[in-house]
Amino acid sequence: MPDRVGSFKNLMTTPSFYKNYFQVVAAIDSCLEKKQQLPALILIYTLIDSFAWIVYGQDEKSVRKRFENWCNRWILENSNLQVAATDLYAARCAILHTLTSDADLISSGRARRVVYAWGTADAAHLQEALQQSGMPDLVALHINEFAQLVREGIAKVMDACADDESLSTRLSAVAERHFASVASHASQPLDGLPN
User: Fold this and answer.
1) Is the pLDDT of residue 192 over 70?
2) Number of domain units in the chain
3) Which residues pair with 139 in a beta bridge?
4) Greatest pairwise CA separation for the chain in angstroms
5) Could you tell me the pTM of the whole model?
């Protein structure tokens, strides 16, 4: 008889981690192709939250600080985006909590409201139109460019693991905790695990 507990433990290894993130990125791409901007943004902001937790989770308990630190280091550091990490965090809160563009950081004037471009629209032209209309508290961001920068940020984290043993250890520990799919033929109870 096969070792079902051992087989189950093998399912909870690194390949699930990569598969899960690949699926989220593929879902973002699918949403963008179908012009489903809001679901794409939900997934993009969730992806940032997840990687911010991986990189800073043990050292930083504040979700906001983790999110902003991750955006600053892995997305914004070498980008041409006009958006600040605090603007992105406010947008994240608005989208994930209310499906609107309303967030406390925006209403208090501590962050600008993010306005999104998509498809063939140009975020620079949108930003220029916002400036000319006298709306300096708005900042334009192209969803596709944002999604690409998040992908690149994730790749940078993975590359950094080669030189950063602490980061590599955190990533490995998190990878072991990721959801794994269990094949439908595994319907029998696993020895040693509750039914």
Assistant:
1) no
2) 1
3) 114
4) 73
5) 0.84
